[in-house]
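Subgroup meeting minutes
Present: P.N., E.W., G.H.
Scribe: E.W.

1. P.N. recapped why we're keeping a running log of single-chain structure predictions: easier to compare across weeks, and new members can see raw inputs and outputs side by side.
2. G.H. added today's entry (423 aa).
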Amino acid sequence: MIPLSTRMRPENLDEFFGQQHFMYKDALLYHAILNKTFESAIFYGPSGTGKTTLARIIAKEMDADFYEINASTTGIKELKEIIDRAKLKFFGLQKAKTYIYIDEFHRWNKLQQDSLLKALEEGVLRFIGSTTENPYFAVNDAILSRVRSIYEFKRLDNGALVRILKNALGNSERGVAKCQLDYEEEALSLIAELSNGDARIALDTLGFIADNMTIGRRLNSDVVSEAMQRQTNFYNKSEDKFNLLSALQKSIRGSDPDAAVHYLARLIEGGGDIQMIGRRLMIMASEDIGLAYPSAISIVTGCVQSALMVGFPEARIILAQATLLLASCPKSNSAIMAIEMATEDIKSKKIDDVPLHLKDSHYSGAKSRGIGLDYKYPHAYGGYVEQQYLPDNLFKANISYYQPTENGKEGAFKRYLQSLKKK
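Output recorded in log:
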């Protein structure tokens, strides 16, 4: 049987949900598709966010030949065959465009990626590449320079996922309307919450439920919990989740490892996922520990990545390690206080320009404008030399954003900074 996520894949722009930061009625991309002026692009972001769907909609709107391949299963040989066919179309009597969509483009090595270059330069191919990896690291610079736009696909919010689910519930041709499911609104919200922004997971969960629910049974939170094999203790009341996250952070901030690990356990047993818990732990590593123990962010990030790789149930051990470390560390909130004070000044004050001696002087004509002339290179003075770095009005006001504590490692940083002022 064809999965519900495949059956309900949007067929036109009106059916496409999400990615409102670049896809809306007045967006340049929206009109480029409708006006058939779309060229090439790279789509990147998590699975289930609409990358392949949008590529297929674009191909349909362009009225052009369209090839879809996956970089994990297709090599240069198949690509060259597509390019040869595209050349016949482009340089022949038809003068037709050809679009190629390469999924998981990051899986190709440099040589494979570069095999596209000539076709892109000549205009033989219009290229859409999708990747879950950051393209600025995973895609060759030569390809990036020949692609007009890079679009970041973000996880779908719960509202968009609920609309997608309701669309499937009301669609009798491709959806599950014929099943006439009796459902609770809370159950749809729960599916959306547990799908973590992935429309494919949300739809296929609904499809599984629709195919296997007995007549007369109501789709509620218990059914969702059973279908997704996830405990949903606090997902039924969203405030419970945030209360537990708040209690976890405040216990860590208060240096109570026993309370911290208790709330961690409640989050895990309540159905909390690694990403949700991990994000909060990484925030705490900078917000509450910060420079009192600078290694905390690296250690916690490593723990979260390890937990994601291992998965539950063993991931609970790794998350506990991160939690206990943070609770047992010396604390400092100097990082968040510094950035918040600096941000507030930028929003509320008229700030002077960057001092001339700090501006970029690596171009001809900079010296004639007085740029960079008075800059003192600290390493030429043994590592430190006194000079102005803040804009003029902030410097004259003796502004200080960073207020180091004496806690942990930060005490050493504070003493070092104080020693520089005495020189």
